[in-house]
Amino acid sequence: MRRQRPVLGRRPLIMLLLALLVVLFLGGMWLLSTLNLRQAEETLASLRQRQIVDTFHANIDRIDAHHRRMEQNSRDLARAGRLLTEMGAGEAALAETLTQALEEFPDARGATLWLTALDPPRALYARRSEAGVTATPLDTDWQEAGWFQRRLAAWREGEGQPYWSTTYFKAAVDDAVISVAAPVLDDDGRLLGMAASDWVAEDIIGLMAGVEVTPSTFAFLVDRENRNLSSLARAEDLADAGRRIDAVSALGLHREIVALAAEEGPVRRPLTLEGEAWTLYLGATRAGMAFGIAVPQAEVDAVLAPMRRVNRRLLIGIGLAMALLAGVTLFLVAGLLRQLRTLYTDPLTRLPNRARLLADLEAGRAGTLVLVNVDGFKQFNDLFGHRCGDRVIQHVAERLEEALAAAPWRGSRLYRMPGDEHALWLPGAPSDEALRERVEALSQALHGLRLAWRGQELPLQLTLGVASSWQLDRQGDREESLHSSANIALKQARAERRSFAFYDPATRVRRDYERNLAWANRLGQALDEGRVVAYFQPILDLGSGRVGKFECLVRMLDEAGEPVSPGAFLEVARRSRLYRRLTLTMVERCLAALAETPHDVSLNLSSEDILDPEISEALLARVAEQGVGERLIFEILESEGIDNYAAVSDFIARAKALGVRIAIDDFGSGYSNFEHLLRLDVDLLKIDGSLVRQLDGSGDAESLIRGIVGFARELGIATVAEFVHSEAVLARVRALGVDHAQGACIGMPGPEPRWTGLPD
C-alpha cells in the first residue's frame, strides 16, 4: 500500500527552506562578525568578573572557616578551664592542659588560660616556637589590656559568645596578634575566668598570600581600629607595597565593617593607585574585620587581547567558510533526514511505531487493523522487573513476525504500539469469512505462547481487537477512526474474556451509555431508599481453625429485595457523582456492624477514597468517635494502583494511631508492586483470587504464592488467600503456609457477620 510521509515526503519544501536559511545566514554573517568582538569581550569580561567573585567567596570562606576553628578551640579551652576550676587544679595541671591544647591545634600560635575562681587565681600563657610548646605564668598586668577590660563587663553579665580582639602587639611572642577569647562560666553564668587563642600577624599574612587573581592582585584585612594586614607585607618592593597599603588605610574601611557584614556578596569599589585603575572587592569576616581583594583593571583587560586576535582571524576565515557552507549544509540535511526516520521506529523492537501507523492510516487505503494486547502485562513488570517486561514485548514481536510470514498475512505490516500492544495492518478487503479465518489462525498460532525468564516459564496470553476500514465504510461509520474502532474491539474481547473480537458499531457506545444511565438511576434510588447494604464474608484463621474476621462487602438490594453484585453498579458509581455517597454509606454500615459483633471487620478503600478528604476525614473521625479502631481493618485496593504515596502514607499513619490495621487487597493483580510493602506500613497481605483459583491446576500460581508468602513472613506480614473455592485449594493454601483463607469453601457473603462452619 502507498504510505504517506508527513515529514520525509516534504523533502523539496525542506530543501527550499534550508536554501533560504543559507542565504540569510551568509548575509547575516557579515553583520554578526562585526558584533562578535564586542559580544565576546562583554562575555569574557562577565566571565572574568564571576571568576573574581568566586575567588573572593572562596577566600573569605577559607578565612571564616579558620575563624570558626579558632573560636571552637577557645570554647574547648574554656570548658577545660571550667573542669580545672571545679577540680581545684594546680598550676602544673593548668600548664599541662594548656600545652596539650596548643599542641593539638596548630592554627593557633599561643593560648591563654586565666582562672580567677582558683585559690589563688592563676593565669598561664602557652606559646609555640621552634623549640616546641612552653607554658609560663602571666602577671596580672596583662588584665589591664583595653580589649580585655571592655569585654570583661559583658562576660560578667553572662554573655558567653567568643570575642575577637583588634590587632595588638604581644610581647610574649614579639609579634602583632589577634586574639579570640571565650569566657569560662559556671552553670549559673558566673564568670570563672577566660580562655583565648592567638593568631599572629605572620600567619594572617600567610593565609592571604594564597589569594591569586592576577599577578599584581593583593589581599588585606582591616580590623575595627583600621589596622591593616596585607599579603603585600611579603612583597619584594616594600616602598610600592607601602603606598598601596596606605591607600587602602586611607579609605577608612574600619567604619564600614557593619555595613559590609549586611551584604550577601562582595561590594565593588573603584580605587586609583598612582594613576592606575583598581577594583576593590570587599566583605566582612565573622571576626569583625573587613576583607578585601584589590585587582588592577589593566590586568583584567589584558585577558581580552587574545580574543581580539581570534576575531580578526575569524573575519579572514569567513570567505573560506562560505565556500564550504553548501557542502556542509547538504551533509547535515542528509543526517537530519536519517534522524527523522528514527522518529518512526520503536527503539526496543526496531519496528515502526504508533506515529508511523497513524501516518500510514492517513492515506485512507482499504485494509484491516488488528491490535494485539498482552494480558496482565503489568504483572511481569511489577513481579519480575522492567527488563522482563521489555523481553515480553520483544518475544511477542518476534512471534508475530514469524506468524506474519505465512501466506495469508504476506504484505501486512507489524507496528509497536505504546505499552504492551502491537498492531498489524493487512491491506485489501477480503470477505468476512476469509478475514475471520485469518484472525482465528493467527490467534491459534499465538495460543500457548511462553517466555523462559531466569529459569521460569512465563505464560503469555494475547487478546486481539479487529476493525476493517471497508467494513466501517459499508456500515456508514466513516466518522470513527480505524484505530479507535480496533481499540474498542480489543476492550470488548478482554471484557468478554475472548481471544479476539471484531468491531461491531451496532453494540458500541450508545448501548453502554444507556445501560450505565439505567444502573446509575437504580443505584441512586437504592441509596435514597436504604437498599445499599453490607454483606459479610468470613475469613478463616488456618492456624486456629476459627473465624475471627469478616470482610464487609457492598451489595445493592433490587426492588424485590434480592442482592445485586457490585460488578453491576460499582463502575457506574465511579463514573458518576454517586461514588462518594456509596462509600460513606458503606462506612456507616461497617461501623454499625462493629458495634453489634465482637469480630474484626475489614472495609475496602480505594486510593480514590483515601485521597478524597470528605471520605477520609469523615471515616477517621467516626472511627475515633466510636473507638473501634482495634477491631477495624482497612483493605487498600491495590489492584487500582497507588499514585500519591505521601497522602496514602499519611492516612495510614493516622489510621494506625487509632488502632486500625492495614491490609493490601488484590496483591498479585495487575498493579502489584513490592514497593507498596516497603513504603506502606502493612499488617495483612491479601493474595489476589486470580492466583488462588489456579492452585489446583497451575504450578506457576503455586510458585508465585509460595514466594509471596515467603517474603511476607520475612516482613512480619500476615497473609490471606482470597477465592478459596474448593477443599483442594484450601488444602494447598494451608500447605503453602498462608495464615488465613477466604472464599466459597469457607463461607459465602451474608447479611450478618456470622459463621456456621465449613460447608459440607
UniProtKB/TrEMBL annotation:
Q: Which SMART domains match?
A: EAL, GGDEF
The keyword Ribosomal protein appears for this protein: no
User: Under which name does UniProt file this protein?
Assistant: Diguanylate cyclase (GGDEF) domain-containing protein
InterPro entries membership: Cyclic-di-GMP_PDE-like, EAL_dom, EAL_sf, GGDEF_dom, Nucleotide_cyclase, Rev_trsase/Diguanyl_cyclase
Domain EAL stretches: 516-760
Residues passing through the membrane, by range: 314-337
Residues covered by the GGDEF domain: 365-505
Which Gene Ontology molecular function entries are recorded, alphabetically?
A: cyclic-guanylate-specific phosphodiesterase activity
UniProt KW keywords: Membrane, Transmembrane, Transmembrane helix
What PROSITE patterns has UniProt attached to this entry?
EAL, GGDEF
